[in-house]
């Protein structure tokens, strides 16, 4: 009797193991099922079989665009032709009540985790993280991403483009790398790690290593094209290596987030297309949306917000600038859809497309108002609180969209691209910030074609949809860590049933104290401030009024019922508080620029001195020395050859905003550039040469106490004064490019060496020390 019992026990254990593999990841090593004797010829091998996904499992492709409003693309009634999005919609499903969080990092974390953005500690962008559970920017290990779930169930996984979910302090050569894409379930990563990048000069990583772009803008380089080439190659190589292994690809463009970089031929396609202005464009889009059924009959066009000028009131000298900025923005969107089409066409040509579950999410939030009321030649200036003025854009109109620009549209065009809804990105209280189009395409898994779906859904619903489509259970344990339950609901029920009842009945929204709660066909919401006002915010969000909309009957939030139905408002406000407590939304925090203080993330005062060695230091600027506008001193110990040396000692930033200490023609020099502003950029030359042999070279900066961060900068050679000059304006951040010692890569900060490549220092930098005084 014993042998059968043993056999039964073994079978039971194996069955339990198979079941556990679905809910506990990674899966255990397979048991050895062969036979071991004293010699191999009497033994029976059992080589560990590779981890395999279920037969017939679909590939999964998530395409996520950046800063696209509901009313921008032609597939949803907008003015910008997007034929590849349209083609997917014609062979798939278009969701017209799909929602995001109103901001980038939070949407991305929620999308990949299947939990609300505060549940994954991303209540705001990572750079503004604070020490509260819903806001650290550190995705908990108890909320594994779908990339980990699929990889540990036999999928190849990859990520291309914009990440923006690694804690800022971890974006460095020291890591840790466990919250980079490759530490969160992606086998392969090619893209950028922060919130935006220059599309002609991106700050690129391959896995965890910074890499140069493969060619120059003059040779036709653009990041969207580059990331598409990389994604196509990855899919082809994956299939070449394993003909049956399904793959998951997260294709997250930097487009169409500013800076809006558009090749000239794409920008030219829209010349004159928007001459009627933003008010008329909203009317045209609204009419097209009604005609095509994207929005239901009777859905109203919401009015222009107070403080946003009518197009007819725009000064005549400003209109050509505003139009060129919009033409450029539209071209950027069309260019992006073109390259996504290349990816889709490659899947079609290889026979992969039919069994690829595609989610084409048209924006991680609404269109962006961050260009301000006038738009800007450099959105980095706008983000840093600098108004370059209309004149600066007028004088460089033909550069817009090219490598020397960093442009962004005026708020009026962002508002127009969010038609028929009110408001924009950042405003989580209204659908202009949170409602984004979604197209789902999966010929093998969806019978319906070219149909609308109007069920209310949220970005957290994508992960459970993937798991159900792939026949996988939600993991309860990952790497030995108990998991928070997934908070999304699968959309699979709606794939072949347009009339299916909604399965998401409640969803809260919150971003920078803009709040809303959806429950059973109603929305109550409270807006706080305007997103283009970048100054300090008051704490009066507590008293901001609440609005009420019956969105089952009022698609666009056009008819406020709060005054007529205060009982419903009170009921939904209570519901918001319940959801907020459940998902780590509290405490609400109206601060904006104040949150960039690293002390909020470090929990202690930041460093006041930094020392580096050698000629090869490369760090994202927030990880490097934080110098301006504080008083500080820089001292480099260098060895200069007998025939002299030249090149960059240290620098931070880019051609548009940054500082550089360099040696040229035998003399130290210093450059501080602030968007080429007249009377602001500083060039300080030494009166002394840098001698051969061992020397010290550096500078001392003494602030003048002005609000602009200005002061005197004194060059030093061997500790002695060697020339000085005035810095009229300095900033605490210098754009997208890194802090470096020994060279200036990507783009040159100083025009004096703009044609010298990286302008590497030809002497030896033994040590360089940065000290806050």
From TrEMBL:
InterPro entries documented for this protein: Alkaline_phosphatase_core_sf, Sulfatase, Sulfatase_CS, Sulfatase_N
Coiled-coil intervals, chain numbering: none
CDD domains listed in its UniProt record: PAS_like
Annotated keywords: Calcium, Hydrolase, Metal-binding, Signal
Chain ranges of the Sulfatase N-terminal domain: 58-471
Keyword Transcription regulation: no
Leader sequence residues: 1-21
Superkingdom of origin organism: Eukaryota
PROSITE patterns: SULFATASE_1
GO MF annotation terms: hydrolase activity; metal ion binding
Family: Belongs to the sulfatase family.
Protein's name in the database: Arylsulfatase (AS) (Aryl-sulfat e sulphohydrolase)
Organism this protein belongs to: Cladocopium goreaui
Organism lineage string: Eukaryota, Sar, Alveolata, Dinophyceae, Suessiales
